[in-house]
UniProtKB/TrEMBL annotation:
This is LysR family transcriptional regulator. InterPro entries: LysR-type_TF_proteobact-type, LysR_HTH_N, LysR_subst-bd, WH-like_DNA-bd_sf, WH_DNA-bd_sf. One of its GO terms (molecular function) is DNA-binding transcription factor activity. Residues 5-62 form the HTH lysR-type domain. It comes from Roseospira marina. The lineage of its organism: Bacteria, Pseudomonadati, Pseudomonadota, Alphaproteobacteria, Rhodospirillales. Pfam families: HTH_1, LysR_substrate. It comes from the Bacteria. One of its GO terms (biological process) is DNA-templated transcription. Keywords: DNA-binding, Transcription, Transcription regulation. Belongs to the LysR transcriptional regulatory family.
């Protein structure tokens, strides 16, 4: 006697027992009545017991058949429930996304409405956190991260560049121009009179930016330092000082006039700054592929708008590779801007 009856035989048995006959069972299974009868006969041989009393076209369970039907009906009901659950989960797409805080607030957040309109049945979970994901310990599908792109062992793709320049409120720029006198157009004089606002977790800070664009040091200016770009931008919009900030985050404020370039005579520093990152295995998931395709399209559209805006202002753009984070070893993973 075989101790391992086939799953197919168990399925045929459970269906016949549930319907009380071969014909309806055959219709449900999509096979012939003879095929069902053969499977039942084989199963009885494998188990060494009789499972049905056969009375004309009716099949009535024996005591052994009753015991087996109780177990198989529970098992196959669980399988059917699991199959339905998987089907519903397939229809309801779920994406767990992590993102750098300021990028999530200023850039990604306002654009997500378009994605949700295109994919209304998706479950989208977004965490804005300063530190990169630990994919071995955390359940995260994808991380959109600000930094240097140095995440060994992970899939990393640059999706968006920063265009960095000094920004302030229109009123503060006028105040500086009046303090400088003359025509108020000397950018070095403007910087020397300015209160500088620093985003301490940014890839480019004042000392590094001045050096990379070939501007002289600005001396002992008063500094304000914040660990979030959005705080630096809020203070700059309120006329407190000049922030060295990214057009990626400040684009809407530049378009509205809430922030203005300190001087168009100062060049703009451009370098890769925002990245898709995560385990390579996640890139094969359909939900990740769909979101990444949408994100690349949004980034390309933003890059085109930024280039047009810089041309409108008449800026000279200085291309640079992604800078090392100032004040930290090269291999330290950057926190979010």
């Amino acid at each position: 006697m075989s101790r391992d009856p086939t799953l197919n035989g168990m399925l045929y048995f459970e269906t016949v027992a549930r319907h009380g006959g071969v014909s309806k069972a055959a219709d449900e299974l999509g096979v012939s009545g003879s095929a069902v009868s053969q499977q039942i006969k084989l199963l009885e041989q494998q188990l060494g017991v009789r499972l049905f009393f056969r009375e004309k076209r009716q099949f009535r369970l024996t005591a052994d058949g009753e015991r087996l039907f109780h177990s198989t009906s529970v098992a196959f009901r669980m399988i059917r429930d699991a199959r339905h659950l998987v089907a519903r989960q397939r229809e309801r797409r779920q994406l767990i996304l992590r993102v750098s805080p300021s990028f999530g607030m200023f850039w990604l957040g306002p654009r997500l409405a378009r994605f949700i309109q295109q994919h209304p049945s998706w479950d989208l979970h977004v965490d804005a956190t300063p530190d990169p994901s630990d994919f071995e310990r955390e359940v995260v599908d994808l991380d959109v991260r600000y930094g240097t792109g140095d995440w060994p062992g992970l899939y990393v793709e640059a999706i968006l560049s920063d265009h960095v320049l000094p920004l302030c409120s229109p009123a503060y720029r006028t105040q500086l121009q009046e303090a400088v006198g003359s025509d108020g157009e000397d950018p070095t004089a403007l910087l020397c009179h300015a209160r500088l606002i620093d985003s301490v977790k940014a890839l480019t800070r004042w000392d590094g930016w001045l050096k990379q664009v070939g501007a002289p040091p600005v001396g002992d200016n008063a500094h304000l330092r914040f660990d979030r770009s959005w705080m630096a931008m809020q203070l700059a919009k309120r006329g407190v000082g000049v922030t060295l900030e990214s057009v990626t985050l400040a684009y809407d404020d530049l378009m509205s006039g809430a922030l203005v370039p300190l001087s168009t005579a100062l060049p703009v520093l451009r370098y890769p700054a925002y990245w898709i990152m995560g385990p390579s295995r996640n890139q094969s998931r359909r939900v990740v592929q769909v979101f990444c395709t949408w994100l690349r399209e949004e980034c390309a559209h933003h890059e085109a708008g930024t280039r047009a805006l810089m041309e409108q202002f008449g800026f000279r753009i200085v291309e640079r590779p992604t800078p090392e984070r100032q004040g930290a070893p090269a291999l330290v993973r950057p926190s979010g801007s």
